[in-house]
Specification:
By secondary structure, the protein is α+β, with helices and mostly antiparallel strands. The chain is 41% helix and 20% strand. Strand 9 and strand 10 form a beta hairpin. The protein starts with a helix and ends in an 11-residue tail after the last helix.
Amino acid sequence: MARDGRLNRRMVGYLSARIPELLLENLEDPRNARGKRWPLSRLLSGVLVGMVAGCKSLAQVEALTDEMSGAASKRLGLGRCIPDTTMRDTLVGLEPKEVRKVIHAQTRAAHRRKALEPVGLPFGVVSMDGKATQAQAWDDTYAQRQTHSDGKRACGVVRTMTCTLVSSRPRACIDAIPIPASTNEMGQFKSSLKELIFAYGGLNMFKIITYDAGACSLENANAIIDAKLEYLLRVNENQPTLHAEAKAQLGSITNDKALAMTEDVLGSYSVIRRVFLSEEMAGYMDWEHLRTVVRIRSEKVDETGQVISHEDRYYASSMEKGRLLPEQWLLLVRSHWGVENNCHNTFDTALCEDDRPWIEADPKGMVVVLLLRRIAYNLLSLFRSVTQRSEDKRQTPWADLLRWFYNAFIASTEEQIAALRPRLAVEI
């Protein structure tokens, strides 16, 4: 029970310290001044508290704020039960660009605390990737109309460009940029890159941009170089000439010539990854800034050492081979998948974004909820990966973490959290 009290105090104290950093009070309030009973910052705090507690709907957030202990509610600046209709009416009126400012404020605060320092690499790395979530409606602005294969039904699809700082331990989502209905992931890349740099220019937070083959093009590579950054882009049949030459340079090199390797044991089998590097394609064709081509060979091996399956992936980079050790090149490529494995997978599994998006019939409101969910993910990830000190606790399953926060909100007592410094002034 003593341990539970300490954990309650730590979790409530963590949020009472981190929520003020979001600067929610600075957001432009879309509501009419007449009849406003709830400050915007308090409503958004309630939504975020519900998200980190694993709530699956605004109705569950209302129930949580009703059942929350008085000590936790006061410490977190909520004060009383927040109606779900009030939260929804506010969320559908907010502008997504305003909520993105909260992500930027959160990231800047974490950067100042040195919570986003690179691990295993000499510089920060941002991985970018698109994500789509189905909606019940479309507006041709935030949601694109898509027709089902039977040609008789249609739905809306909300798409965003996720920007993840994959070099840091928390794998923080440092931006999520709506993709307009009139374009696609490839067409949005340069605009998203520009917005990302505008948000964090001058912080020296990252040096390299990574992207999957979906946005690998000379035009996008040029945009990254023009921004004074480096790139690592996956190359496949979308770039047939580049891909064929990379295979010609590296494809026939045998495993014993690999420059570095890793092995991950996954139950009854292992995955072995090897890295091969070449500078023979430097300046290839119009890719004047290309310096290094990377091949990663992944092999799935059973307990007897028999190779069950294998795959080769190729990457083009503007960095010279000597900028990183072979082991770091392998880490860089593997880190790219943090945008999928850490962010997108967590959004869809632990936070149930695809199944329970909260708002489905209002595309703009859906985007606002989506952005708030990324802020909640960062709160959870920073707690798990930075606030938690032991490696065992940093591996806490997301479901357990959500349950811990929920229990802390319900069970915290005045005695347990009395020693915490005051963080928020509460009007009850």
